[in-house]
Amino acid sequence: MTSAPTTRQPLAPIAERAAPPAEVPVPQVDGLTWRPLAVADAPALFRLVSAVEEHDQHPFRTSLEETEEIFEGDWRDLPRDTLVGLDADGEPRAYASVDTRPGDTTVVRAFVQGAVHPQWRGRAVGRQVLAWSTARARQLLAASGKELPARIAGYVQDDDAPERRLFEAAGFTATRFYSTLRRDLSLPVPEVTLGEGLRVVPWTPELDEATRLAHNDAFRDHWGSEPATPESWVHGRSMFAPEWSVLVVDDTPATSTGPDGVAPRASTGPDGPVVAGYLLSGRYEQDWPVAGYSSGYTETLGVRRDYRGRKIAVALLSAGMAAYKAGGVEYAELDVDTENPSGAHGLYASLGYEKKDGSRMYSIEL
């Protein structure tokens, strides 16, 4: 007897599922006054974030340039999507930020982040800040008008038990897990020979739009990934290391278009090469004293679906490691989803990558 196929129940309207409150509850904490963040707050916010990361012994340190990225993005509404709690001296002691991205087409998402200064903990500040963030996230999801599955999400280090408990008490569930891997660059870097027409080239600004199109194609079968728009693609590049970023291009003519209906050509014109794969890197020197070693970080690695099985990922990783090594650093690092569908874990292990630490995504699925 053949069982009947299961059918997905139709979603209720996003405005109903998100259940947005009419008003977002501003925290009530003796000694703190609350207002939205402003661009001029970046240095003071950086001091707050640094104090939190040092106290909580995070394996990284956020730079001032990364802190300033909170204020960037034409899609952001800072007066409504950010909050800071100031003490009597005007110093930030807690903050929250909620961010959505304009390109979401399969799941509409709102990401929450925030922190409370160690000296202000134990007063329910974190609970109230997260409640504010969650309420504002619900408003943003409802206002998107996108009749899609929806998600409110935040990221936590695996060993940060207090923050894990905070998210869990607020109704979030750990739904995805990530591993930070590192590879000792004193080991030999493999040499890879690519097939005819394929070659490794340095990243250039002229090839960046073609790289974005390659990224959207490469990640359309990855959980949690949504298309990058031209605006969101270039957001968050304060630590970008172009000298450590490489592409694999195909010089042969392309005959098809990608999933977005656009031929995977370079932005310089229709006769440019196809970007078949890419490795974009970051240089996080502020992390090196904490880690105890220097490293090059692989931000994003992807291969177009039509080009898989042709050693492109190995060639990119090898070229990236060679660039890091030439730059005088000791390790290559990257993060990977533990449920990555492309077999990435086996690939990284075969190249000598080992787990350093981990993080997880907490979410409310709507």
What would your notes on this structure say?
InterPro entries: Acyl_CoA_acyltransferase (IPR016181), GNAT_dom (IPR000182). GO terms for molecular function: acyltransferase activity, transferring groups other than amino-acyl groups. 27% of the residues lie in helices and 25% in strands. The protein is α+β, with helices and mostly antiparallel strands and 366 residues long. The chain has a 12-stranded mixed β-sheet. A hairpin with an 8-residue loop joins strand 3 and strand 4. It starts with 13 loop residues before the first helix and ends with a strand. Residues 1-6, 256-263 and 265-269 have low confidence and may be disordered.
DSSP summary, beta strand count: 12
Sheet with most strands? 12 strands, mixed
Could you say how many structural domains there are in total? Answer: 2
CATH superfamily of the largest domain: Gcn5-related N-acetyltransferase (GNAT)
Record the SSE blueprint:
Layout: H1 14-17, E1 33-35, H2 42-55, H3 64-68, H4 78-81, E2 82-86, E3 92-99, E4 108-116, H5 125-144, E5 150-157, H6 161-169, E6 173-184, E7 198-202, H7 208-218, H8 230-233, E8 246-250, E9 274-282, H9 288-291, E10 295-303, H10 312-326, E11 331-337, H11 344-350, E12 354-365
Parallel strand pairs: 4-5, 10-11
Antiparallel strand pairs: 1-2, 2-3, 3-4, 5-12, 6-11, 6-12, 7-8, 8-9, 9-10
